[in-house]
Amino acid sequence: MTPMFPSLQWPDVALRLGLTVLVGLLIGYNRGEHGKAAGMRTILLVCLAASVAMIQVNILLPTAGRSSDSFVMNDLMRLPLGILTGVGFIGAGAILRRGDIVVGVTTAATLWLVTVIGLCIGGGQIALGLAATALGLFALRALKWIERNLRQEHRAQFSVELEENAPSEVDIRRRLAEAGLLIEGGSTSWNGIRKHRTLVFAIREVRRESDTETPAIVGELAREAGVVSLRWRGRV
Q: In this structure, which topology does domain 152-235 adopt according to CATH?
């Protein structure tokens, strides 16, 4: 017995495409205003591709399965699954490593989310797609503000070049500790020609993500007699 499937009418297709464009623009605007690599156009295109794929699956549903005179199975779910696989490659391209910092993970996750939203809306699960859109916007906007104000553990590297009359290593370690900076490791090198010491410390600190300024103790040490140069390299 051949299963009966309701035919997809053009008003339904127009509604799904319209909602897909709206969702893609809403989430794409959020990415675009933050200057992300995958901005409004990319997000919209990915969401639209997923939606069109599911609309195509819905249209082809009457041809699903295997006819009595054929050994070939018409598996329509391969189309949306292929879309998800392809988006995985796009998401991987959005993730970049800059030194010790990895960026683009949220953008890659957003691409994955809009793909699933597009599949939902294109497949007719409009309420589920809109709910996912609302939750996604909440994660991108509200949770970003919360993350920026949470106190998190960060790491940095602090190096200082000293003359003979500069503060001792013990004194510098003490002052860093008093400033709330935990020293996890360090090394010392000696320049015999210039008679300078270079101290390098691995630092751990707890601060808000929004607190991006260099700790005040660095500026205080820079003004000390005998300090030739210093460098603070922040890392996540």
A: Alpha-Beta Plaits (3.30.70)
CATH 3.30.70.260 domain extents, the chain: 152-235
CA distances from 66 to 60, 61, 82 (A): 13, 12, 21
Q: How far is CA 52 from CA 20, 56, 221, in A?
A: 9, 6, 61
Nearest C-alpha neighbor of 152 from the set 205, 73, 220, 188: 205
Whether residue 198 contacts residue 162, with contact meaning beta carbons closer than 8 Å, is answered with yes
Q: How far apart are CA 116 and CA 50, in angstroms?
A: 7
Q: At residue 230, what is the residue type? A: L
- Can you give the pTM of this predicted structure? 0.65
Buried b (16+ CB within 10 A) or exposed e, 8-47: beeeebeebbebbeebbbbbbebbbeeebebbbebbbebb
pLDDT digits (tens, 9 = 90+) for 175-199: 998 888 888 888 888 887 778 889 9
107 DSSP β-pair partners: none
